Structure formats: structure tokens, C-alpha cells
Amino acid sequence: MKAYILTLLYTGMLFMTPEHVFSQKTSETDTAIFNREQVEQVEQKDRPRTTTKPILYLVGDSTVSSFKDPYYYPRYGYGTQLFHYFKDIEIVNLALSGRSSKSFIREQNYQNLIQNLKAGDFLLIGFGHNDEKPEEARYTNPQGSKEDPSSFKFYLYSYYIKLALDRGATPILCTPIVRRNPAGLYKGTFVHITEDKPGYPGGDYAESIRQLGKELGVTVLDLCRRTQQLYEALGSEKTLYLHAWITDKADSVDNTHLNRYGAAMVAFLLREELAQTNNPLKGYLLENSVTPSEHDFLTPNPQYRTP
Description:
The chain is of the alpha/beta class. The chain has eight helices and eleven strands. The chain has helices at residues 30-35, 108-116, 152-167, 205-216, 223-234, 236-239, 260-275, 294-297, and strands at residues 4-8, 14-18, 55-60, 90-93, 122-126, 170-174, 193-194, 203-204, 219-221, 243-245, 253-258.
């Protein structure tokens, strides 16, 4: 019979969790991690603008996007939960699972952005996870300048920041959220610092975003730093409940993708980061927002069926 640990979460709720989940080590290779983070094909329709009021557009990867999952705790990108913390502004989530700043520009959703972005809008940019992938279609170099056409900074600036500025919209950069490490150690790929691979130089993707924001005077919401602080404070037992579970067993946890509770928590951190800036988007924040509760957000999928 498997041993179990009773985990008392900070909400006071008890969960039965397999002991081996908490004894996982960090021996998993970057290749194994990356293999779990695949491009997913979803229908992308024309999305004509329906309002003359400002819109908050979101672009990014699976940590931002929406999903339709059969999972026990389905995947939710943090972009799906931002509506809890904003008022008087429409939020249009164009983010797509598996895309990098380089590969996203070939998508219909990027064309939707080009067709609709206008003066007074806001563009929230959340890439990084897939720019790290050592493959031609998605990889961007974290070390190059914004003038280097192979670099992460080049794609962020040329296809997103410049587009927004040229239209009179306001770009906002987000560093990528951490990948959950079951051992609770946050370094290397877990915080988006990669090693050199043949033909694919490594580097620090979050720092590249920080540098670009400073160079251009563009607001940076440092979700990498904030999620690392949160995950280190909570520990691996509690962060388990921020992430998607494929089945009702804890060892099916997806350490990259958030569940609805985790997405709401990251959206709240984004709200806190934005509130500390002088960016005009902060004028649309709801006042007196509170930290999302596990009780309200951690709910199993009612359509889940045991395999």
C-alpha cells in the first residue's frame, strides 16, 4: 500500500497526496521538460473589433492562453483570469499554446492583432517558455541585442513593441512564470536560464526581457521573480495545487501549466506588479482586490472521467 502524506495547505484544507510526488528530484533533463510543452493546434477565427473603447490584448504562450481540457484540474493560462482584477476594459486573449515570439507571428491570431490594435489600446506580451526550445521554428537567442535578427529581443521589439508604439498603443512586457520544481529548487530551466546547445546559445530569457524594457522605457511585470518568490515561500507541497492534473492522482501533475487556481494567483501577482508602476493600464485595475482563495478556484472538472 502506498504511503501518503497529509498536507495541510495554508487555507486549512487537507489533501491526501502520494508521498513520492514530494520526493521527485531535479534530474529531469531540459529535453524531457521541453517534450511536454508542445505546439497545440486550435481554431483561430477572425476577431473583428466590436468596440471603440480601449482593449487589452494578450499575446503569449500556454501560460497565458485558454484551453479546452479533459483534465481533472484543467489547464488555464493566467490571461484567462485577469478579468477578476480589471474594470471598464475588454480583454482579448490571443495567446496560443506552444508558441514563441518567433512562431506566433505566423498565426492567424497575430493577424488579428495587426488588424485590430489601435491608439489607446494595451498589448500585454508574455513569451519565453518556447523561445528556449532548441529548434529552428521557435528558438530565439536570449543573448543578442534588439538589432540582431536571431535574438529574443529582436522579435519582442520588432513584432510586438514597435507595432504597439507605431499604433499609439501601450506595450507591456511580462517575464515568464517559473516551471514548478518538485524539489523546490529554482534555477536553470525552471527560471528560464538555459545552457548552450549546438547551434542554440543559452542564456537568461527573463533577464533579456528586463534589459529590453529598461532600454526602451517599456513597463516590465516581473512574473518570473514573483512566481519564484511565491513558489519558494509555499514549498513543493502547496504549489502542487496551483498546477493542472491530468488525472485525479497527484503524480499526474503538469509542472508547466497552471490550473484555474494557479492562473488566478498569477493574475493577482500581475495585478500587484502593475499597481506599482506608472503605466496607464493601472487606471483600469479594480480596487481592493484580494488574493484568490483555493476554496473558490480549485475545483475539479465536472466533465472529468476516470481513465
